[in-house]
From TrEMBL:
GO terms for molecular function: ATP binding; ATP hydrolysis activity. Signal peptide: none annotated. InterPro entries: AAA+_ATPase, ATPase_AAA_core, ATPase_AAA_CS, P-loop_NTPase, Pch2-like, Pch2_C. The keyword Nucleotide-binding applies. Keywords: ATP-binding, Meiosis, Nucleotide-binding. It comes from the Eukaryota. GO terms for cellular component: chromosome; nucleus. One of its GO terms (biological process) is reciprocal meiotic recombination. The keyword Cytoplasm does not apply. Residues 169-322 form the AAA+ ATPase domain. This is Pachytene checkpoint protein 2 homolog. Belongs to the AAA ATPase family. PCH2 subfamily.
Length: 479
């Protein structure tokens, strides 16, 4: 829902700010009433920063929001158009407000797959399990914005009944790349995000059906076709609900190719190739329904069946995170540990562009130890923060000194973290998200808690240990 204030200067482009309003788990409020209250709050602001983050209604002024809303956040800023942090007046802004409630039931498994392996898992969206996952995914290119634009256009074309004989689109996405780069997580987060964005058009919410491609091929003759039929019969039941947005996620889609090639080579029963063909045919039939989208992933780009590649509208490569993505992933992990109280001193670390400007050259340090001058500066900053009276400078001077101290510490820690991110070059997103735990587990911190500087040093040691372990594995255990 887009809202522009009356009286805005005509003909001017407005900055679109997407606002997501998440209800409390126990709320039974009507979504329209909450949306109206949220709009009343945000349009009462005289100005707003062009930045992602929470908006906090003044306590007591919006009773409905106080009672029923868990969070209000500005999300998904369009990159490049407006400088981040710029102050915008109300007539500069077009608001898009989405209100949603999270489903906490978790995934439902089908138990009719081969050898008891579930043929699929099903989530009701928006799901609590995926809440916030979109914001924690970092990639080198603007792949998230590209996928959002594509999916929105594809569903709009279907809803508008554009003639598919003249303009062809399949609503099929293929994400490929090395393991551990977040392809499956991105598909799940995309389904969640679209369900929230399109809540007005699909009031029943969304359903995500994650297909286990391996389970569709039975060792018993003719069983594979039955498994495919049962799977798509279930999917069709959901698709037949026009107010529900349906996502079909097929992970490791290259296994379809393996089954087809194996059948041709004689190592797999001919039934397998019939099952693959049946699956592709049923996917084609889903095009007739305007409320369904197929999301697929592959770890082995070269092994993807060309018959399937032709069906994909978008074929996006998801590689290992670059330096900026690695830095932001680790920065987010440190913020989480500070929130949890494991890191005892909270410093707002700089963004990657700011940290990179501070450190054009690597730190002259090893294992997290700083160069002498910087270490002394940090120690002086900590001493100033810990003790001391305002002295002759007075309260105003003390305030300025504290701000300068905080800035110095944040700059130094950000520069240290940047070196950790650079040292982790080539690591996958999955590995990067394990490092914060491994860094903590490999050090005997008193009471399990540590300062931010101690933790960043432990992170660098964890990166070095991970590299050493990989080198040992690559050499077959010989040194």
């Amino acid at each position: 829902m887009t809202v522009a204030l009356p009286g805005a200067p005509p003909g001017e482009d407005k900055a679109v700010l997407n606002v997501e309003v998440c209800l409390r788990p126990d709320s039974a409020a009507e979504l329209g009433a909450v949306r109206a209250a949220a709009l009343q709050f945000i349009t009462s602001l005289s100005s707003v920063r062009y930045a992602e983050g929470p908006l906090h209604p003044p306590p007591g002024q919006h009773p409905l929001l106080d009672a029923h809303v868990q969070s209000i956040r500005v999300v998904d800023l369009a990159p490049g158009r407006i400088p981040p942090g710029r102050l915008l007046l109300q007539w500069d802004v077009a608001w898009q407000v989405c209100v949603f409630a999270l489903d906490s039931e978790g995934a439902a498994d089908d138990d009719e797959g081969e050898d008891g392996t579930p043929a699929y898992r099903e989530w009701v969206l928006p799901a609590a399990e995926f809440h916030g996952s979109w914001e924690t995914l970092y990639y080198e290119s603007e792949i998230k914005q590209r996928l959002l634009r594509y999916a929105t256009s594809a569903l709009l074309f279907s809803e508008s009944r554009v003639n598919p004989q003249l303009i062809s689109w399949n609503r099929v996405v293929l994400l490929h790349g090395p393991p551990g780069t977040g392809k499956t997580s991105l598909c799940q987060a995309l389904a969640q995000k679209l369900t929230i964005r399109l809540g007005d058009k699909y009031p029943q919410g969304g359903v995500l059906v994650e297909v286990n491609a391996h389970s569709l091929f039975s060792k018993w003759f003719s069983e594979s076709g039955k498994l495919v039929s049962r799977l798509f019969a279930k999917i069709q039941e959901v698709v037949d609900e026009p107010d529900t947005l349906v996502f079909v996620l097929i992970d490791e889609v290259e296994s379809l190719t393996a089954a087809r090639k194996g059948a041709v080579a004689g190592s797999e029963p001919a039934d397998a190739i019939r099952a693959v063909n049946a699956l592709l045919t049923r996917l084609d039939q889903l095009k007739a329904a305007p409320n369904v989208m197929v999301l697929t992933t592959s770890n082995i780009t070269e092994a993807i069946d060309l018959a399937f590649v032709d069906r994909a509208d978008i074929k996006a490569y998801i590689g290992n995170p670059n330096e900026q993505a690695r830095y932001e992933i680790l920065r987010g992990c440190i913020a989480e540990l500070a929130t949890a109280g494991i890191i005892t001193d909270s410093h707002p670390l700089l963004s990657h562009p700011e940290a990179a400007c501070l450190a054009e050259e690597p730190l002259a340090a090893a294992a997290g130890e700083a160069a002498a001058g910087e270490a002394a500066a940090y120690a002086a900053a900590e001493a100033a923060a810990d003790g001391g009276s305002p002295g002759e400078a007075g309260a105003g001077g003390s305030c300025c000194m504290e701000e300068e101290t905080e800035s110095l510490q944040a700059q130094y820690l950000s520069r240290c973290l940047l070196e950790v991110a650079r040292a982790a070059d080539g690591f996958s997103g999955r590995t990067l998200r394990k490092l914060p735990f491994l860094a903590h587990a490999s050090h005997d911190f008193p009471g399990g808690r540590c300062s931010c500087l101690q933790y960043v040093s432990a992170l660098l040691a964890a990166v070095q240990a991970e590299r050493a372990d990989r080198a040992t594995l690559s050499s077959g255990g010989h040194t």
